[in-house]
Prior knowledge:
Blueprint: E1 13-17, E2 29-33, E3 41-44, E4 47-50, H1 52-62, H2 65-77, H3 83-96, H4 101-111, H5 121-133, E5 139-145, E6 149-156, E7 162-167, H6 175-190, E8 194-199, H7 200-205, H8 207-223
Parallel strand pairs: 1-2, 7-8
Antiparallel strand pairs: 3-4, 5-6, 6-7
Helix pairs in contact: 1-2, 3-4
Amino acid sequence: MWGVRGYAMLPVHVTRARGVTGRRTRLAVLHEVKCLLPRHVTVLDAIPIVRPERLALELCASEYAMRSARAIDDMWRRRLLSGRSLRHLVADASVQGRPGLQVLRALLDERGDDYVPTASNLESRFAAILARSGLPEMRRQVDSGADLWVGRVDFRDPRLPLIVEIQSERYHTALTDTRADEVRSAALRDAGFEVIEITEHQVWHRPDEVVRLIEDARRACQRR
């Protein structure tokens, strides 16, 4: 459901707190855990689901280290989690003594909180547009938000409260992706940022349009 590459929807795996009920089912592979905190759960497509950080821990407990590392990098690259959000999960899991904790902690220590997965061709193309137009270079993949972490944004101006999100066709065209983007952008604006969204088509085929959007947004920030 989180779109992690290399995994299929079937068989369905369900996690629940131990002792909730004694009923069994053949509809899914059931995992009973000692503790499932409310902050480790969210809702996706109207279905209660563990958050990406908790999923990372579950994978570290059930998969080979290399495969769980690839899954974590995939979620990190797609901004479903970050070093900061994983550290919070590790703190919770340390109290619970969860399986997979040692592997997750090692993977996180290896990467560090400021780890940035390999840039996509789309991000490289956007950076090249900025350079050719003479616009200031922007920082890539920056954790952003106010008191609470909102997400890791694609590009952020080093001086102005300006954020640029590149909406790739692969990850931002489904209805659920669109809704998630809207919520995320609203939270960033509430935190005081000017947020502009640029499509993959604009990056590859309409660079002049991209430059105009950036210039308009920079002027808006400077008028504040």
